[in-house]
Amino acid sequence: MTRRSDEAQHLRDLALLRRVRDRIDREYAQPLDVEALARGVHLSAGHLSRRFRLAYGESPYSYLMTRRIERAMALLRRGDLTVTEVCFAVGCASLGTFSTRFTELVGVPPATYRARHAASGEITPCVSRTVTRPIRNREVRGVVSPLELLTRSS
């Protein structure tokens, strides 16, 4: 009976974590922090962070920043917004933090990325999303990202 109750609790925890992840995906441009996310599912911030990392391989904050950077990449490729406008549009409050995190995840500063990719029209949006998905440099060492392959051939 204990095993069944442990499994049921695990499934309830996963459902809560999916709610948190879905909220991040939906509200990435809003001011979110781990404490607010944890309050939304009635957990402590520490417990939420530990469980989220176990389930998804990264902290809620890292997941949020990855979503923001992915959206920023799409807006920068459009080419009609400045880097500062993109920074605030994706929910970042500090241009410095945004630029640092963008460079960390993408490998080039946002202005450089915008100059290289703005309105290029070289590849379809569905392929672009897959190829330009940010890869954490410190997590994947020695692996060439699809974005690097594209920029090398240019």
Oligomer: single chain
* Strand and helix order: HHHHHHHHH
Let me know the largest β-sheet. none
Helical fraction equals 55-70%
Shape: elongated
Q: Write down the Rg.
A: 18 Å
Mean pLDDT: 84
Q: State the secondary-structure class.
A: mainly alpha
What's the number of extended β-strand segments? Answer: 0
Distance between the termini: 61 Å
- Beta fraction: under 5%
| Low-confidence segments | none
Total of helices: 9
Please outline the helices and strands.
Elements: H1 2-27, H2 34-40, H3 45-56, H4 60-78, H5 83-89, H6 95-106, H7 110-117, H8 125-131, H9 146-153
Would you kindly provide a written description of the structure presented here, covering whatever features stand out?
It contains 9 helices and no strands. Helix 2 crosses helix 3. It has 154 residues and is mainly α. The chain has helices at 2-27, 34-40, 45-56, 60-78, 83-89, 95-106, 110-117, 125-131, 146-153. Helices cover 69% and strands 0% of the residues. The mean pLDDT is 84. It starts with a helix and ends with a helix.
